[in-house]
Write a structure and sequence with these properties.
This protein starts with 8 loop residues before the first helix and ends with a helix. It contains 19 helices and no strands. It is mainly alpha-helical and 379 residues long.
């Protein structure tokens, strides 16, 4: 395999290939099959080794016995999904584990699909999705205990995917999908509201995205989002104490009582948790790509900037919440739906660096055709 983004003639020619090329299709297939095999093995192992349940898992066996517009301090979408599976296949550890691993498989596949939409070098899409396994919260904690957060991850990727699709090629369908996943995302975890705000900022800062925000079809997006959320929102208004008190108390439970000291504690915890999530991924990218990775951090493209604005806007919003609400504890599961975009950001940076190096190489059309014919004769 040629080094990524090395500016070789072969890389120039490969970058000219479309998404539907044979090589790109092959990459998509082997990644899909590899992920399917991995989560199938995870499912079998989890069912075989133990019938015991973690806290979040045990909760599903309790609240998923009936349907309601709301249950506790968490939105109800995962509960509804699990209720349907239990009704069809029976209440068992196997029914629970299969749902979770199917959701995780969908997260990874959709993440791969999003990256393939954004990068020129499709190999970086494979690298990006496999890099999720460098995050302990993704390959370990998600399997061990997470429930609602897993569905939030899927909603985040699909929401961003349809936003990008709309920026590139708007359609009534893409606007409808944005509204649908905005609404469904709010039914997975309440912190999805931060994703919506951050993506809105990133879209407004994108030249084409700003135009899409003033498209009349945005009314369809807003209408669908409201319709999806409305029944639970009505329940939430009637149970605001349950929703807000539990969440705010948990996120402020490390407070010492002093406003400034609590703010300092919250900022320190935000930095600490962020570092814990992204450092393993950053170190592995540095070890694998070395100087190329460091140089790529200075490269920019429209989509690396887009993801950067999502991450930056989220950080600003979280800092504002720390100052306003005096949050003192931010657990990794609360930050994961934002920070799991970091591998995608790194891959977009590498892709941008490759494009910039290629743009420095000027090849005449006759020379380009000659090189293509020579490579074809060697293949």
């Amino acid at each position: 395999m040629k080094p990524l983004g090395n500016g070789s003639f072969a890389a120039v020619l490969e970058d000219d290939a479309s998404t539907g090329s044979l090589g790109a299709t092959s990459d998509f297939r082997w990644v899909s099959w590899a992920l399917a095999a991995y989560f199938l093995v995870q499912t079998i192992i989890r069912i075989a080794i133990s019938d015991s349940l973690r806290i979040d898992e045990a909760q599903q066996f309790v609240v998923s016995q009936w349907l309601a517009w709301g249950y506790d301090a968490q939105p109800p979408l995962y509960n509804w999904l699990q209720y349907g599976v239990f009704e069809i296949f029976g209440t068992s550890v196997a029914s629970f584990v299969i749902v979770k691993n199917l959701m995780l498989f969908c997260v990874y596949i959709t993440y791969h699909k999003l990256l393939r939409l954004l990068v020129v070098d499709k190999r970086l899409a494979a690298i990006g999705v496999l890099s999720l396994f460098t995050m302990p919260q993704m390959f370990w904690q998600a399997q061990r205990d997470l429930t609602h957060t897993v569905l939030t991850l899927l909603a985040v990727v699909l929401f961003i995917y349809f936003v990008v699709s709309t920026i590139r090629r708007p359609s009534l369908f893409s606007y409808a999908m944005i509204g649908l996943w905005a609404g469904l995302g709010m039914l997975t975890k309440y912190n999805f509201a931060l994703v919506i705000l951050s993506v809105l900022v990133a879209t407004f800062c994108h030249p084409e995205g700003r135009k899409r925000l003033f498209d009349p079809r945005l009314l369809l997006t807003l209408s669908l989002a409201v319709l999806v959320v409305l029944p639970h929102a009505a329940w939430m208004i009637s149970n605001m104490d349950l929703v807000l008190t539990s969440t705010v108390n948990t996120m402020a439970e490390q407070g010492a009582g002093g406003k400034l000291s609590d703010i300092a504690h919250g900022i320190a915890d935000l930095i600490k948790t962020t570092v814990e999530i992204i450092v393993p991924t950053t170190v592995i990218f540095l070890l694998v790509f070395r100087q190329s990775f460091l140089r790529s951090l200075r490269a920019r493209s429209e989509w690396s900037d887009f993801i950067a604005r999502i991450l930056g806007s989220t950080a600003i919003i979280l800092l504002a919440l720390i100052f306003i609400v005096t949050l003192t504890e931010l657990r990794d599961r609360w930050l994961l739906p934002f920070l799991f975009l970091v591998p995608a950001y790194f891959c977009l940076k590498l892709d941008a660096a490759g494009r910039q190096s290629l743009s420095l190489i000027h090849i005449s059309e006759p020379t380009r055709r000659s090189i293509k014919s020579r490579i074809a004769s060697y293949a």
